[in-house]
Design goal:
With 113 residues, the chain is mostly helical. The chain contains two helices and no strands.
Length: 113
């Protein structure tokens, strides 16, 4: 039976051995960081401050969006009015007013066969 399968390999084979006293240094460092983290106290108003900042940003975002929508709507309206104002004032051939059509008159002449 082969004992070198993927679950039997030694994962530390390629790593160099730890230096002497590494476990002690690691333990002391862990204790020092735990003591330092234990002395840190959160600000009692941290949540309220963060929520207030978030609400201000949200209000500002909505205000900017509303102003942008108003500007785009105003520009589209002004461009549309300008385009309509550029139309010729005299009516074209279609609206010349000559010849009153009736329901019996064909709009196009019929082809005779």
């Amino acid at each position: 039976m082969n004992d070198t399968g993927p679950d039997r390999t030694d994962h530390r084979r390629g790593e160099p051995p730890p230096p002497p006293g590494a476990e002690r240094t690691e333990r002391e460092l862990r204790d020092a960081l735990r003591a330092l983290a234990g002395g840190v106290l959160p600000d009692p108003d941290a949540y309220r401050t963060a929520r207030g900042e978030w609400l201000r940003r949200e209000r500002r975002r909505r205000l900017v969006l509303a102003v942008l929508v108003a500007v785009v709507f105003t520009l589209a309206t002004l461009i549309g009015l300008w385009v309509l104002n550029q139309a010729p004032s005299n009516p074209g051939v279609i609206f010349s007013g000559t010849g009153a059509g009736t329901a019996d008159d064909p709009s196009l002449p019929r082809q005779r066969r």
